[in-house]
Amino acid sequence: MKKLTLTIAIFCSLLSVQSIAESVILNPHQILNVQSGQLYKAQILVENGKIIQIGSNLNKKTADAKIINLPDLTLIPGLMDAHVHLMGNTELKGYAGISESSQLATIYGVKNAKNTLLAGFTTVRDV
């Protein structure tokens, strides 16, 4: 059983590395510049999971990149929240969650972290 779990974990990690290794160009409707407060039209080049360049006509410079068109989206930098409760079932009120096992609280924590990330928060402090 341990060998099967280890094999699956290694296989999944290889798949994630393979998907990160490709070049991707994001083509949103607009991008927010937080320093100027202005919205502008540009593309974003992502390689190995990191933003390499923001500019115009990037698809002409990087012909082998996968282009993802986002015509209805405005991209913003990741948001920060200094007071979140990731662990546990956030729908429980008062002391209802006090009898929750640490394993179940961890599962809820993963779910809550994913929802927080999908809401645009890339930096949080769990309190």
Automatic annotation (TrEMBL):
It holds the Pfam family Amidohydro_1. GO terms for molecular function: hydrolase activity, acting on carbon-nitrogen (but not peptide) bonds. InterPro entries: Amidohydro-rel, Metal-dep_hydrolase_composite, Metal_Hydrolase, Metallo-dep_Hydrolase. Residues 74-126 form the Amidohydrolase-related domain. This is Amidohydrolase-related domain-containing protein. It comes from marine metagenome.
